[in-house]
Write a structure and sequence with these properties.
The complex is a heterodimer of chains A (about 270) and B (about 270). With about 270 residues, chain A is mainly alpha-helical. Helix content of chain A is about 85%, strand content about 0%. Chain B has a single domain, classed as P-loop containing nucleotide triphosphate hydrolases (Rossmann fold, 3-Layer(aba) Sandwich), CATH 3.40.50. In chain B, about 45% of the residues are buried. The chains are: A mainly alpha (about 270), B alpha/beta (about 270). Chains A and B meet through helix 6 of A and helix 3 and helix 4 of B.
């Protein structure tokens, strides 16, 4: 009887182990966020001091921006097409085709353009950054930078932050344009006239909608690069550690993009008409 | 011999004496990672112009010790003085200024994958000197000739063999004309013939440039070939430090056991 009781004491009950796991995850998350915040502060100091690595930043703009154009063209176009397909189908039934263009335009500019582009970039760019810097960490290249009197934050992180913050708005604008074109093609094929679609876009889409979407994209770019760099610098072990860093960078960046998107909407669209 | 004894090693024949001759001084260094104690009160002195080899089995803490010498790790307790500068207490700016005077050759060579051989060697020159492009190119060629890699400027690190990578790592470490070079397992992962080539290169650099060197290795052949003074580490402690003949004559059981691996290797070959 005593043995049986001691066994029960030794094994944690299910709710306790679930709580422990949950608590552990929260602590890890807070630790990772804290490290990312410290890294961002260090990066900000270099940026404010005007100590930018121009050559490395240009290389990163090419990698993050130019190399992502094709994937953004595809995701942007199909996002606009799906939006148009669903809205045209519903609205035509009610004779409300005058709203299709505006809804596609607004949705692309405010949400679908910046968010889908950012999520795509989190997978494409964020994982790449984490894997590249993670490999440098586990193969002592980051240590080599330090002993060559070069701060990895200045040499690696700041150029990626700058490049992603610049590239994401441009990629988002591209997604908006091709999304609009795709949406127009599908909507007109579904029965919305050319003039009705264009007029609807002109009536409901305002410059601020586009600008706010680009502001969001700027912050999403910072999030993707910051999380990717931070996970890469924290990588440990070998190939497995690099893989973990890349996975964590993608998942964390997407979470932060979706959470920050809500709060950015609250700030940016507080006084908007619609 | 305890680590305390190792902290006051007797100078070798012809070795200079006096506090100013000590380039690296480690005093009672402690460092743990979680529950694992990597360094347990290590003390060491490296004199100007000598090659000091730190030997020991894998995981004994010798690479951790080397990382403390260049400020890549901070100790839990103890002091690290390099050129009389307290490495463990320097600001980032002062630490970078000190690091420019130290060359480090990493176990994995740690060449930057995205840069060519020439760009790797030129990296510190581009960042820390006002030299024009032509002067940097000329210095890179000179350094690559020193490590017998002329004409390999445009190769990427992925196209190099292990021995070539090490030699490019050595060339990069020499770029700023350091007076102290730290080698982490310079012959690790190399075949015996290539390992001896790297040893010969290190000996030649010492003869030609007169640099002070600290070499971390578990390769006994390499250690006895390179070292003016040797130290043996085990489980974070310095078991012994002295001239090669003192190490060979040591009655310390761990040292005897460690040295026996060399005898076995020689006998079996």
């Amino acid at each position: 009887m005593r043995d049986h009781m001691s066994d029960r004491r030794a094994l944690p009950s299910l709710p306790v182990s679930v709580l422990e796991a949950f608590g552990g995850r929260i602590v890890r998350g807070l630790t990772e966020t804290g490290r990312t915040a410290f890294m961002m502060i260090a990066a900000l100091r270099w940026i404010l001091g005007g100590r930018l690595e121009i050559r490395e930043t240009v290389v990163q703009i090419h990698r993050i921006g130019v190399d992502s154009v094709y994937i953004v063209l595809v995701t942007g176009a199909f996002t606009g097409m799906v939006l148009a397909y669903q809205t045209a189908r519903q609205f035509l039934d009610f004779g409300a085709q005058a709203f299709v263009g505006g809804l596609v335009g607004l949705s692309m500019a405010r949400e679908a353009g910046p968010v889908f582009t950012a999520i795509t970039a989190a997978g494409w760019v964020g994982a790449g950054i984490a894997a590249e810097i993670g490999t440098m960490t586990v193969t002592e290249q980051i240590d080599a930078l330090r002993v060559l009197a070069t701060d990895p934050v200045r040499y690696l992180v700041v150029p990626r932050l700058a490049a992603a913050a610049l590239a994401l708005p441009m990629l988002t604008m591209l997604a908006n344009v091709v999304g609009g074109i795709g949406g127009y093609a599908v909507a007109t094929a579904a029965g919305v006239s050319h003039g009705t679609f264009i007029l609807s876009v002109q009536r409901y889409l305002e410059p601020w909608d586009l600008a706010a979407g680009l502001v969001k994209a700027f912050f999403f770019g910072l999030i993707i690069a910051a999380v990717g760099c931070s996970r890469g610098l924290d990588a440990t072990g070998g190939a497995d550690g690099v893989g973990r860093a890349a996975r964590s960078a993608v998942v964390t960046a997407i979470l932060w993009i979706l959470v920050s998107n809500f709060f950015l909407d609250l700030i940016l669209f507080r006084g908007a008409r619609q | 011999m305890s680590s305390e004894t190792a902290s006051t090693p007797s100078p070798g024949p012809g070795a200079p004496t006096g506090p100013s001759d000590v380039v690296v001084a480690v005093r009672d260094l402690w460092r743990s990672f979680g529950t694992v104690t990597a360094l347990a009160g290590v003390s060491l002195a490296v004199r100007r112009g000598e090659t000091h080899v730190i030997m020991g089995p894998s995981g004994c803490g010798k690479s951790v010790l080397l990382k403390h010498l260049v400020g890549l790790l901070k100790p839990d307790r103890g002091e690290v003085l390099v050129y009389d500068c307290p490495v463990h207490a320097l600001s980032d700016v002062d630490l970078d200024a000190l690091r420019i005077r130290i060359g480090v050759v990493f176990q994995s060579a740690a060449l930057f994958d995205s840069l060519s051989v020439a760009e790797n060697v030129a990296f510190p020159l581009r960042r820390h000197t006002p030299l024009p492009r032509e002067a940097i190119a000329s210095r890179v060629s000179e350094l690559l000739a020193l490590v017998e890699l002329e004409g390999k400027e445009h190769l990427m690190p992925s196209a190099l063999s292990g021995g070539m990578r090490k030699r490019v790592g050595i060339a990069r470490a020499l770029a700023m004309r350091p007076s102290l070079i730290l080698y982490d397992e310079p012959t690790g992962g190399l075949d015996p013939l290539t390992a001896r080539t790297v040893d010969e290169l290190i000996l030649r650099l010492r003869a030609d440039l007169g640099v002070t060197s600290v070499v971390v290795t578990h390769d006994l052949d390499s250690a006895f070939q390179l070292g003016d003074r040797l130290a043996v580490m085990d489980a974070g402690r310095l078991e012994i430090s002295g001239r090669p003949e003192e190490i060979l004559a040591s009655p310390n059981p761990f040292v005897r056991r460690f040295l026996a691996t060399r005898a076995v290797a020689v006998a079996s070959s």
